[in-house]
Every structure is written in structure tokens, then in C-alpha cells.
Amino acid sequence: MLKPIMTISRYILEQQIQNPGATGRFSGLLTTITLAAKVIAREVRKSGLLDILGKTGDVNVQGEQVTKLDEFSHKVIMDTLGRSGHVCALASEEEESIIEIPEGYPLGRYVLLLDPLDGSSNIDVNVSVGTIFSIHRRITREGKGMTEDFLQPGHRQVGAGYVVYGSSTMMVYSTGQGVHGFTLDPEVGEFLLSHENIRMPEKGKIYSINEGYHDRWERGVDEYIHYLKREDKETDRPYSSRYIGTLVADFHRTLLYGGIFLYPSDRKRPHGKLRLLYEAAPMAYLAEQAGGLAITGRERILDIQPTSLHQRIPLIIGSRQDVLTAEKFIRAAS
Ligand code: AHG
Ligand code: MN
Ligand code: MN
Prior knowledge:
With about 325 residues, the protein is of the alpha+beta class.
């Protein structure tokens, strides 16, 4: 017997039907994101073949070199979503200020925040990259979207997700009713439901952190990582270490296998490296929707009131028990 084919658009539609108040506009927004994801996925697949690799020479607002695929992804998203009628403004890690909807196009009731290409330093070496998105309902009443529409705490997100361009392309998202994963069937050109209602294991046995910065860590982080390396049968230690350097890929593994990912603050980066609005908040939303946790070390990520668009934040995210243990070490040492 042929299994029913659950495409992402059908899934989004069925979730919409279950919610009698829904107008379909939000579903339209999600469907447009999947279109952008497919176009980016196609380009990522070709990136080894075309003369698209390498730096463009530009430096983005974070002071980092922009590669061509970053730019391409950013443009695809701005083009598909900026003209979709679903959002009243966009914000991207690649652009300093919020992005207005082109003249003449309708304004929607949502704002969309994006890391168009996460893990860009991994493109040239054929390692997974990703796209991260976060959706808020606008808080201003009318006209074009304003910065305040974007500066909302993570717990107010109405949806978030990511696409991982890995050994296969997967889109994982939540709209507050669990976390669901879809794998792109390249021949059909559709994302098909492959991971329904993902639950993060309560505890894992993998830790993920850039150990190169060890000497700059605060004592609590240092002691916690040492603890994970010590042998102990009862708590299943030592943990294994994995670090890809693409948040999307490191988080995706943590979501499915459990464990913990840390990009803490350190002596050189007192606020960590990751951006609250484009990286930490959407991942925290997904983690909590899957039964996990996300903290800075001291506070819950989703409670933080952002003060600026490109704000950075320390991120400790993963299985509930692992994050709570990390928090205990950090609190005890401070
Ligand atoms: P981006 O490519 O969007 O700038 O993000 C890179 C981020 C993130 O994906 C990853 O977790 C982190 O940078 C890795 O940083 P380090 O090289 O300092 O470990
Ligand atoms: Mn990123
Ligand atoms: Mn990026």
C-alpha cells in the first residue's frame, strides 16, 4: 500500500484547519518560506560546481566577510518574502537596519527575522549550512513595520524554524504545536513529512562547544566541560564531543540526539557571538517546543527583552537535564 504523501504545504494547511480562527495568511507566509528554502537549497547543491564560492569582499554589519552564497540567500528571501504580502518588514543578519517592503506591494501583519545563511565559513569545505527564521506578529498598528515590531522577547514568536542543507535538505519548524521536520525530495521538489512531533531526549551524551576558546571561558563553563569529560558510569560520562561550527547543524543534531550546545560568553566576547534575534531566540523556541531548554547561563533566552536588532547573547541549549546541570555549574562558580 502506498503511504499517504504529506507535503509541508498540506501539513501547514491541516494545522490551519484545526485552528478555526486562522485566516490562512500565516500559512501563506510559511509556504513562501519553503519556496525560498528550495531555491537556496538548489544553489547550495550547485555551489561546488559554479564559480560562486569565495568571498565577495564585502563586510557585513557584524564585521565579517560575506560570501556569495550569503548574498544570494539574502536576496532570494527578500525577493520572495518581501513581495509576498505576508510581512510588513524584514530583518536580516546581513543588513544593518530593517528592510522595508518595496513600494506598491501589500503589507502583512507579521515581521520576519532571518539568518539567511548560517555557517557561511563552512560553504567552501562542503560542510552543512542552514537558514534560520523567526516570525513575530507586528505590534504597531498600521503602515510599514518598525524596529519595535522586531524587538520582542522570544516567547512572543508565533513561529520559528530552520532549513539545514546537509546530506539531505530538511526544514524543521514550529508554530507552537510541537516541532516537525520535513525532508526535501529533490525529484518531486517538495518537502515531505519525515519527523513528526520531534521530542528532544531529556538527557544526551554529546557536548558541543568551541574548545579552542577554553582559556577565555569563565570558571563555571570550564568546570562543567571538565565534569563532562570525567568517567562515571551512573551519569553516562564521559560525553562525546561534536562541533560543526554551523549552529543549524549543531542544533539539529542536539534536537534529534539530545545533549548540549554552548556558545558562552568569554573574556573576549562578553556577550557571546550568536545573535539573539536571528539565531538564539528561534532555536530556543524550537528547543522548548521539543521539551528542551535554552538559557544564557543565568536567564531563559525566551524571556530576554531585545534592545537592538543585532544584539549578541550567550547560548546554552539542549536537553533539559543537561542544560540544568550546566546552569548549576555556572551559578555555583559565580
Ligand atoms: P554565520 O555564518 O551566520 O555568521 O554564523 C556562524 C556562527 C554559527 O553558525 C556557529 O555556531 C558559530 O558561528 C561558530 O563560531 P566559532 O567559529 O567562533 O566557533
Ligand atoms: Mn549564523
Ligand atoms: Mn549568516
